[in-house]
Amino acid sequence: MSLLAYCIVEASAPVNISRSGVGNMPVESVESQGLRMFISRAGESVATTPGRDGALMFHGVIEEAFRQVAIVPFRFPTILPDESGASAYLSDHSAEYREVFNRLRSMVQMEIRLQYKEPPASPQTLSPPETRIKPSGTEYLSRIQSELTRLEAAANQLQRACGTLAQDWRQKASRRSMTCFVLIERVGIRDFQIQLEDIAVPPELAVRLTGPWPATEFLKNAYAESRESR
């Protein structure tokens, strides 16, 4: 029977999964090369469980494991053919995962999202569409660059505020927003939250702090490629 893979932990890590998995199937595990993969004998249950419900069950298992130890989560759904396939996967990627756990065993990922608030209505935006003057391409690009510069300045301010609590920092920008990924020690979560409580950013920006999450943004490319290939 095919297996639904949830996540990987170190075999020596004390983890207990008390809840059922997708389709109310029991959560079991497969061990190899010092690694442990949590799985369900999903088979038809993945196909018959509605997408949102299945995803919620899947992430519930991941969250329970992550509350206890460092994990490397799979995307939903990642299907393996059987136990032999799961063992072979662990054996083939054991060096990669051991390196991951050596680096990230005590770490978690916090996320800071910076986003422009909706601009207030102006006489121009309230005027009829046919009377509005559209900006030129150069003006539009200049405005985007200016917005990005302000986002980067705010992100730099937050990074400085994190100080030595931030073991690593990554950031990704999109239109009118930026997400900062911060790698910190699991034991430092509360200190990190306190450190950022009173940091002021420009009034046009909203700040949202979330986490902790598994440190997926700080995994190396080999791991990411192995996930995407499945």
Q: What general outline do the C-alpha atoms trace?
A: elongated
Q: Give the helix tally.
A: 8
Number of strands: 9
Would you identify the regions where 5 or more consecutive residues have pLDDT less than 50?
222-230
Percent of residues in helices: 25-40%
Head-to-tail CA distance between termini? 17 Å
Strand content: 25-35%
- What is the H/E string? EEEHHEEHHEHHEEHEH
Structural class: alpha+beta
Radius of gyration: 22 Å
The biggest sheet, with number of strands, parallel, antiparallel or mixed sense and barrel status, is: 5 strands, antiparallel
Average pLDDT level: 87
Break the fold down into its secondary structure elements and pairings:
Layout: E1 3-10, E2 28-32, E3 35-40, H1 44-48, H2 51-68, E4 72-73, E5 79-80, H3 83-92, H4 94-104, E6 107-116, H5 123-126, H6 137-162, E7 168-174, E8 177-185, H7 189-197, E9 205-213, H8 221-228
Antiparallel strand pairs: 1-3, 1-4, 1-5, 2-3, 6-8, 6-9, 7-8
Your description of this structure?
This protein is α+β, with helices and mostly antiparallel strands and 230 residues long. Helices cover 40% and strands 25% of the residues. It contains eight helices and nine strands. Strands 1, 2, 3, 4 and 5 form a five-stranded antiparallel sheet that branches. A hairpin with a 2-residue loop joins strand 7 and strand 8.
